[in-house]
Amino acid sequence: MERTMIKKYESKIVKYEHMNNSVIKITLMLEEDLNFKAGQYITIVFTNPDGERISRMYSIASSTKDKRSLDLCIKLIENGSASNIIKNLKLGNDIFFVGPAGKFVLTEESKEKDIFFISSGTGITPFISMFHELIDTGYKNTLTFINGFRDENDILFTKEISSLRKNDINLKLLNILSRPLNQNIIYKGHVQDFLSTIILKRQLQNSHFYICGLKDMIDSVSLKLKELGVKDEQIFLEEYD
Ligand SMILES: Cc1cc2nc3c(=O)[nH]c(=O)nc-3n(C[C@H](O)[C@H](O)[C@H](O)COP(=O)(O)OP(=O)(O)OC[C@H]3O[C@@H](n4cnc5c(N)ncnc54)[C@H](O)[C@@H]3O)c2cc1C
How far apart, in Å, are the Cα atoms of 91 and each of 12, 17, 95, 96, 179? Predict the structure, then answer.
């Protein structure tokens, strides 16, 4: 596999927007190119008000073609050390990071198969970058997004996915809501509850499953997939906690 080099970068915040009540999207502008693979993350080094340094990892949402502009999608955790700093960031602030890093990237073999992107909350972030890659490399099989959110207002990347979907790609998009405002929706619950109905029998043996988010969700989804007959080598994981 081609290697990317980890090094230090300086950047500036050029966009800061709320995606929902607790998630923000930050766009960083760099003065030099960042070569990364779709699915990789950067590690931001923050300095808190006491002068202590804290490092946190964030997946890149943008296309690998944008080498000087990175989109991050960050959940602001109540009383989270980095979250407390991030919520006070402003346009023009400097951000220092190291990267890119991570092995959660699409394999060449995956691109020949049906792919499932399974996430909860901001775990959807690396899949947006991977989605760009699949479009850019002429992916011809079926891509299924299975995303878990709390309610309709929490759904992330709707605009990005619908604009990318205009490309010639066979995409299925399923948002599973744990506490929907509309009680009549079909997909009410957690992502693992619907795997057996969403994944077709023939897809179980021959697809690749990429899962990203918090450990509890990843464990439940992996367990369910294995109960359905999916093998370890078909599953790729990125844990956020
Ligand atoms: C490889 C990798 C990539 C990551 N990419 C992202 C990303 O793209 N977006 C993002 O929001 N976070 C991402 N994270 C998590 C991120 O690095 C921080 O752990 C998170 O933002 C909390 O930091 P904090 O200092 O604010 O909270 P802390 O003071 O460190 O508190 C940590 C608490 O937050 C919980 N937590 C961590 N991440 C999340 C989350 N996403 N949603 C809900 N609860 C969470 C943990 O379970 C823990 O209880 C990633 C983590 C890893 C390891």
Answer: 8, 10, 11, 15, 33
